[in-house]
Amino acid sequence: MKTLFTNLLLCIFIFSTSLFGQPQGVQKMMVEKPKNPGAAFLSSFVVPGAGQMYNGDVGLGLGLFLGEVAIFGFATNMNRIIEFEDWKKAKRIRTGCYAAGGVLYLVSIIQAPIKSKKLNQEKGFSFKKDKKLEFYANHQDGKWLPGLTLTF
Hints:
Blueprint (H helix, E strand, L loop, with lengths): L1 H19 L16 H10 L3 H5 L3 H19 L1 H4 L5 H37 L8 E9 L2 E9 L1
Antiparallel strand pairs: 1-2
Helix pairs in contact: 2-6, 4-6
């Protein structure tokens, strides 16, 4: 537990120095790029809150991540923290913690791509609407005929 806490503090220190460690008088040129909703979804799927950090909401992303760690950490180590005489009560509390963690995880996954689409619309970025993915299956008369076409 001490090593987990030490590693967490080290990560926060490294992250804060990389954010605020810029020398005075030096200005960074910020280039606006469109946010990819798929990348936001995938990063939040792998690590809760990472999609929010990708979109620029670092505080929300850290809050979601630390909330997940706290909820699942408490649920997993609950018997070491609190003494329960009734195992059914402990089971209900653990199930409630897992449900709350699952809801928080779903919020993280759903919110990230929606926010990136909203940011793209606010900044005027647009994407092509007609993207096609075609699989050619049949070969007749020297031509490949599309067997399956997906438009998204």
